[in-house]
Amino acid sequence: MFIISVACFLLLGSDATDVLYVNTTVGESTVLPCILMLPANTDLKYLRFYWQDERQQVLYSFNEGKVMPKHVNKLYRDRITAFPQDMTGGNISLKFEYPTLEDNHRVFRAFGAVFDSTGMKRFIIEHREICQMTLHVAVPYEHISLTVNEETMTAVCATQRGFPKPLVEWRLQNHSDNTQHLLDPHDVNTTAAPDPQDHLYSLTSTIVIPRGPYQSVACLVHNPTLNVTLIATHVLTKGEAERSRLSLAGALMVAAAAVLIY
């Protein structure tokens, strides 16, 4: 499964450096996008750029037409590639392979410069920061379980082995008009804890189903980085029986009233 979400795909070389948020999944390739506005027909031998993280560890280095692998930190070796066929158009983006949770919240910055063609090492574009972005790495929650006890009117929702910490929501569907009632968070008991080894979260959420004309209860677990929501729904059969008894009682009352009137 390939999931990538980028707040904005292009960053232009301007006086202000915008900040991007790049969302991706553990183990899947993602792109760190950046565009440097180059003069027309710029030869790559006049281009210099490099990327580094917030610790000043170098991801990639390109200088005057050549890739400089000796400058790259071992943390990023064999994981980072550029797009050389697009560099003449100013594309200094990187392809980031095999992101892990260790890369989560890393801040990456691209710096660039362009020399003139006189050989005097004078800048057409001064050396400066071109792009900045924060990487968010996630692990999808793949399964969700919902257990309902209609005798005690309690419900337990559970999921596990995902990242980051999920958001949970409970909804009750009204029988009469199919509207949904969102349960107040204060009425929900949720525990979410990461595994100390791999940092993946497990979640358990419990509610007491309130009285009311409800035909179903649903638990929603949301991964905020991937913007993916898992939903589990249970139809309340006991509620249906209670509604039948109420309907029968109402019918008997109407019948009794009709006899009295008669």
Shape: elongated
Number of helices: 1
Mean pLDDT: 86
CATH hierarchy, class of the largest domain: Mainly Beta
Low-confidence stretches: 1-16, 240-262
Spatial strand arrangement across the major sheet: 1-2-10-9-4-5-6
* Assembly level: single chain
Total domain count: 2
Order of helices and strands: EEEEEEEEEEEEEEEEEEH
Q: What's the CATH H-level homologous superfamily of the largest domain?
A: Immunoglobulins
Question: Count of DSSP E strands?
Answer: 18
Over the alpha carbons, how many angstroms does the gyration radius reach?
29 Å
Helix content: under 10%
Query: From the coordinates shown, what is the CATH architecture of the largest domain?
Result: Sandwich
Portion in strands: 35-45%
Main beta sheet, described?
Answer: 7 strands, mixed
N-end to C-end Cα span: 71 Å
CATH topology of the largest domain: Immunoglobulin-like
Structural class: mainly beta
Describe the fold and architecture.
The structure is a single chain. The chain has 262 residues and is mainly beta. The protein folds into 2 domains: 4-138, Immunoglobulins (Immunoglobulin-like, Sandwich), CATH 2.60.40.10; 145-257, Sandwich (Immunoglobulin-like), CATH 2.60.40.10. Helices cover 10% and strands 45% of the residues. It contains 1 helix and 18 strands. It has one helix at residues 237-261; strands spanning 4-6, 19-25, 30-32, 47-53, 58-63, 66-67, 80-82, 94-96, 107-115, 123-138, 145-149, 154-162, 167-174, 180-182, 188-194, 201-208, 214-223, 228-235. The strands form 4 sheets. Strands 1-2-10-9-4-5-6 form a 7-stranded mixed sheet, with no helix packed on it. A 4-stranded antiparallel sheet has the order 11-12-16-15, with no helix packed on it. A hairpin with a 7-residue loop joins strand 9 and strand 10. The longest helix is centred in the C-terminal third of the chain and has 25 residues, at 237-261. The protein is elongated, with a radius of gyration of 29 Å.
